[in-house]
Amino acid sequence: MKTESLRLRSAPVNLDELKTACANCNLREICLPAGLSEAEIHGLDELVYVRKKVRRGDALYRTDEAFDAIYAIRSGFFKTRVTTSDGRDQVTGFSMAGEILGMDGIGHDKHNCDAIALEDSEICTIPYSNLEKIALEVPSLQRHFHKVMSREIIRENGVMMLLGVMRAEERLAAFLLNLSQRLNARGYSALEFNLRMTREEIGSYLGMKLETVSRLFSKFQADGLIEVNQKYVGLRNIEGLREIYAHHTR
Amino acid sequence: MKTESLRLRSAPVNLDELKTACANCNLREICLPAGLSEAEIHGLDELVYVRKKVRRGDALYRTDEAFDAIYAIRSGFFKTRVTTSDGRDQVTGFSMAGEILGMDGIGHDKHNCDAIALEDSEICTIPYSNLEKIALEVPSLQRHFHKVMSREIIRENGVMMLLGVMRAEERLAAFLLNLSQRLNARGYSALEFNLRMTREEIGSYLGMKLETVSRLFSKFQADGLIEVNQKYVGLRNIEGLREIYAHHTR
DNA sequence: CGCTCGTTTTGATTTGGATCAAAGCTTCGT
DNA sequence: ACGAAGCTTTGATCCAAATCAAAACGAGCG
User: Fold this and answer.
1) Whole-structure pTM value
2) Using CA atoms, how far apart are residues A184 and A186, in angstroms rounded to an integer?
3) CB A171 within 8 A of CB A216
4) What is the pLDDT of residues B23-34, one digit of tens each?
5) CA A62 to chain CA mean position, Å
6) Which residues in chain B are closer than 8 Å to A164, comparing Cβ atoms?
7) A210 shares contact with chain B (CB less than 8 Å)
8) What residues contact A126, with CB distance under 8 A and at least 6 apart?
9) Beta strands in A42-140 (DSSP E)
10) Which 153-192 residues of chain A touch chain B by CB within 8 A?
């Protein structure tokens, strides 16, 4: 299957490709179609008309680019980041298969952050105008889309909490537990994984310097909580991490 | 007009009250109806069926309460906050007239934060089921609601930036400039205002301690940037505040 | 295969903001 | 009008994480 050939195609839609869109996608339980009926998912299929690859290091979209679509990650891993006028940047999230990117663009018809692939990735483009149209016809899709946006608000509330009140140790424990849980939901091991991001990116997300991330990894390892080796992380004492996260230790 | 008598009323809707809902509301330019046509606003009116007062210190809603409506602030001032398992809390935002509260509830059908009135306030209740229904009939309302949610995501991105990369001074300057700009958009002075929140609440929002907030207010005053006296704040050098915000000084 | 550049680790030192402490203001209830 | 409780300010001290520094490691490439 040559996905590349699809890249710039618009109507008429390629039917073979569409078959593999939502209805047959193994991510449908955690992606936009979650909770929709078979028939409704076929409705959704109509709007996902371009699959695209994004190479590691490339941007899916950038700040101030015109907004016209949201994206579902089919495979791969992304970071999103915002940048200050003087060049410092803040990683606002890491996204993996089944998650939705680009909702920041709706508010002002242009994107408000950069979405950068941290590994070669594949995404489904969902033109916003199609989504709007189909949401009018499929109320459960409208509702589900609202849920997806609301959950992004909730997630960001959680990050504000991390950054505002937690100590560096607690933040890193929270980060590891969250990553583990999301990987697990996708059928990967909850206990062992390879990080896709650098210490600097983790640090940016968690509001600390890369040296602090590195030191805390070493400390967690010394305490028997995890095993780390470069990108490899193995969780050895989840309960211990939870205690740090919940601030039972200090 | 006895608004109190409306509190627990449901259908049939009181027509006199409805007249004063969106179509005649002086907030319609900055509230949910912004950008809708006259006819569309009358559609919106149908769904705002309860006006309610919230006394200073009382909650409009609390974490884990069942979600069934979003709220437009008609007058007054709110904070939203999330709380950790061990009781520390993080103020996630301050909201004023024309702004929408409660979108955090959609994601999991229950609220994810507390919304507390910082002064006696009046809100318009917009039952979510009505909003969903009318959004299906009024596409521009659907689109506008998406924008409101997206802008909340954008706002939170900005707060993550504040908390993640900025120094205490920059955060406080950003806070003052943002407050000034929003008050100004509502017809109040951009240069003088009375804070509705305590130093502790500002500190919680900005990820610093109340003593730090107080010290920085004093420092800004000593530097001729502002004049502060308890809740009163006068901005004396907006450009100077912008420079601090943009990190041109250090 | 070996070089280069980016990433990670670890150590030494500094510092912005937290914490601890105490006094001065304000507001509110009786 | 008074007293109490809650804010705010300011000072002294401390500490978690930043910064500065340097070596070790690893992946990608000619």
Assistant:
1) 0.90
2) 5
3) no
4) 878 888 788 888
5) 16
6) 90, 163, 204-207
7) no
8) A32, A47, A48, A69, A70, A71, A72
9) 50-54, 59-61, 69-75, 77-83, 89-96, 100-101, 114-117, 121-127
10) 153-154, 156-161, 163-166
